[in-house]
Amino acid sequence: MRPVDLAVRLEWVAVAVAAIVFYAVWGVSWWLFALLILAPDLSMLGYLAGPRIGAIAYNALHILIAPLVLALAGELLANSTIAAVALIWIAHIAIDRALGYGLKLSSGFQDTHLGRIGRREADPSGKLSS
């Protein structure tokens, strides 16, 4: 792994830790956290309609804009449940990025803005391709 890739992943680890710590301080319930932490991944069902629709659906729930707006709304409305949902969503996105899962390209689920995910294929010489 290149040093810059490691640095980016460590930044996302820091975001995930911060979101979880804030959740622990302001959170509603750890049951809510457990229930919702994987909820954004339901967007993968969009791939049933094809890679273009799948990428749009997945990316819509895996960018920080919506959960940051939701967190702000929760704070402005003094609603701890809204803020807690936003922190869970932010933690999910950050964990995904820390693991190397990026926003999806319309060419297929394995193609992300961070590069291709999954196992690398071996070329005929027996060496792994990059």
Query: Could you tell me the radius of gyration in angstroms?
Result: 17 Å
Question: Low-confidence spans: pLDDT under 50, at least 5 residues?
Answer: none
Per DSSP, the total helix count is 5
Major β-sheet profile: 3 strands, antiparallel
Q: Estimate the mean pLDDT confidence.
A: 88
* End-to-end gap: 12 Å
What shape does the CA trace take? globular
Give me a quick take on this structure:
This protein has five helices and three strands. The chain is mostly helical and 130 residues long. The chain has one domain.
Describe the structure.
The protein is mostly helical. It has one domain (3-105). It has five helices and three strands; from the N terminus they run H-H-H-H-H-E-E-E. The chain has helices at residues 3-26, 30-36, 51-60, 65-76, 80-98, and strands spanning 104-105, 108-112, 115-116. A three-stranded antiparallel β-sheet has the order 1-2-3, covered by helices on one side. A hairpin with a 2-residue loop joins strand 1 (104-105) and strand 2. The longest helix is centred in the first third of the chain and has 24 residues, at 3-26. It is globular, with a radius of gyration of 17 Å.
Provide tags for this entry.
130 residues, mainly alpha, 3-stranded antiparallel sheet
Chain-wise SSE layout:
Elements lengths: L2 H24 L3 H7 L14 H10 L4 H12 L3 H19 L5 E2 L2 E5 L2 E2 L14
Antiparallel strand pairs: 1-2, 2-3
Helix pairs in contact: 1-5, 4-5
